Amino acid sequence: MAISPKIVPYSDTYREAFRTLNEEWINTYFKMEEADRISLHHPKENILDKGGYIAVALLENEPVGVCALIPSKHDGYDFELAKMGVSPKAQGKGIGKLLGMHMVDKAKSLGARKLYLESNRILQPALNLYSKLGFIEIAGVSSPYERSDIQMELVLKNR
Q1: DSSP string for 98-146
Q2: Domain holding 14: CATH number?
Q3: For residue 152, is pLDDT > 50?
Q4: Carries keyword Membrane (predicted)?
Q5: pLDDT (tens digit, 9 = 90+) per residue, 31-87?
Q6: How far is CA 95 from the centre of its chain?
Q7: Strands (E), the chain
Q8: Is position 132 within any domain?
Q9: Overall domain count for the chain
């Protein structure tokens, strides 16, 4: 029988996992940028204390996936869906989808109306997941990331 992943809220227990799971995919495809270092090395101060949320996916009590809702600096958006990383050894098990659905539900429970995300077109599995979650491509939003070449939004409620 397959073990099901479990999604839990972030705590300091998962601080290193949040950083390493993100650094793993960023360093595989891109390079670490200053904006990454800020949020990954200080998630409490830069995400949680500002009203954000971080979820951790556990498989047999081991953190194998993470994702954050960061209060958005862009007008019209409540949160940015960001810092989603799934360990290569756990990819293909639906963990990204489970995390994504959890984050959308969490954003709704926090009263969010619109989510925003940034990605890169070479991350096709991630883009496919975002599309399945209901995100659509948008244009015209500036990004602090060199690697960002696509922005997407998800409307949760009509204003």
Answers
A1: HHHHHHHHHHHHTT--EEEEEE-TT-HHHHHHHHHHT-EEE-----S-T
A2: 3.40.630.30
A3: yes
A4: no
A5: 999 989 999 999 999 999 999 999 999 999 999 999 999 999 888 999 999 999 999
A6: 12
A7: 6-9, 53-59, 62-71, 79-86, 114-119, 136-138, 150-155
A8: no
A9: 1
Give residue 10's domain range.
Answer: 6-116
φ and ψ at 134, to 5 degrees? 105, 0
Beta bridge partners of 153: 116, 136
Pairing of strands 114-119, 79-86: parallel
**Residues 6 or more apart from 20 whose CB is under 8 A from it?**
none
Length of the chain, in residues: 159
Q: Is 35 part of a structural domain of the chain?
A: yes
- Residue 74: inside a domain, yes or no? yes
Whole-prediction pTM: 0.93
Q: Is residue 129 part of a domain?
A: no
